[in-house]
Structures are given as C-alpha cells and as structure tokens.
Amino acid sequence: MLDYDKEADAYDATRGGEPRAAAAADAVLALVPDGARSLLDVACGTGIVTSAIAARRPGLRVTGADAAHSMACRAAGRLPGAVVLADGRRLPFPEASFDAVCAVWLLHLLDDAGPVVAEAARVLRPGGVFITTVDKAAAHHVGSDIDALTAPCRTDHAEDGTERVTAYAAEHGLVPSGTALFRGHGQGRTPRRVAQYVRDGRLYAAGGPRLAERIETLPGPDVPRREPDFTLRAFRRQ
Hints:
Layout: H1 4-14, H2 17-31, E1 38-42, H3 48-56, E2 61-66, H4 69-78, E3 83-85, E4 98-103, H5 114-123, E5 124-134, H6 136-139, H7 145-150, H8 162-171, E6 174-183, H9 191-200, H10 208-216, E7 229-237
Parallel strand pairs: 1-2, 1-4, 2-3, 4-5
Antiparallel strand pairs: 5-7, 6-7
Helix pairs in contact: 1-4, 2-3, 5-8, 9-10
C-alpha cells in the first residue's frame, strides 16, 4: 500500500483534483437520503471530496476521518474542527452516531474490508446508509490497448468486489439500497505510468519487467486512455 503520509502533498494533483472530487461528491449525495443530518467520510484523505459534500448540502453535518496524519491535517484545513485522526476499522464514535457513512476509494486497498464495513454499520443509525466505491480495479479496464496486454496478469480477487462487499454488509444488517456512477476525471491510464506501476509491483506484478517493457512499446506512451467510470453502492441499516 502507498504511504499516504508521503502522498499527501501531491495527492489531489495526481488524482483528478476538483473535477473528480465534485463528481464523487455529487454521486455520494445522490445516495444520501434527503432527511439525513450527519455524514462520516471514512478515509477522507485530503478532504477534497469531504468538503465538496459539505458545500453541496449545507444542512448536512459532515465529519472526516483518516488514519494518515498528513492527510488528516490537510482535510482539517478544509473542514476546521470536523476531522479526526482515526482508522476506519476502529472509529472513535459511539453506536448509531451518523445518518450516513461513506468510504470512497478505500476498500480496494485493504486485505480485509470486513472490519471497515462492520464499523460503518456500528456507527450508523437505523435507516442510515453506508456508501462505498466497489470494483475499482475493474473500472480501469476500459477496453484499451493497455488492458489487452495486461489481461492475462489480472487477479480475480478484489476485496472491494460488489459481491464480497454485499456479503460483508449483510453480516451486519446492511441491505443494498442504491447505485451511482461517476467519471474518474484525470484517471485515464497511460502506458508509461502503468509500466512504472508494474515495475514497482503495484499493478500486475506477475507480469514482471517483460510486461512493463511490452506496455512501454504501445503508441502514445503519455497519452491517457479513456477515463474510468467508478461505481458507488449504498447499503441501508435495517
């Protein structure tokens, strides 16, 4: 996993900035019930999405939480007094504290997403919703020439796979309640970037240096391929 304390300075600029944050915030809010009065953003990162959510629905009390100190500090600058340093698997809130909990681009990073889903369910009030991105890796497979080369090296396991997350949710009394999509602005992959990720072991590690070399020979090494459409799933606490 990346060191998100070190990533904080460049995170927004390399992850689509305000356009991506706005798209994510709009999609999250499309799944938050109109009557909700409080929302917790787990793994809020720099707070760029969190602050966009707060700005779009002034009547919603928005709280951010992140386990990386540098990320939480940046988020606190965007939402003064509304950000805590906390791991999504051990949230410092009592049961039934929030009407909504969201986790955008978190579950795919974990070896076991179950504890995060369990904590989200614990801090939700009855009738509240847990909203999370699912199938992140699959979203990047847009039918490009990069995808054609890397297909044999993909793994079937995804901790944020829809079926897996739905099963975790069911264990804690959460039932599916909606879906939303949003465009990943600035997230179109380039051959040069993917080749470096392969060399670093962050993507398609089974392919090794040979795969990285083949990717780098693709035309337009710095030309982004089509941007992904990310999926959000909502689960309601019964």
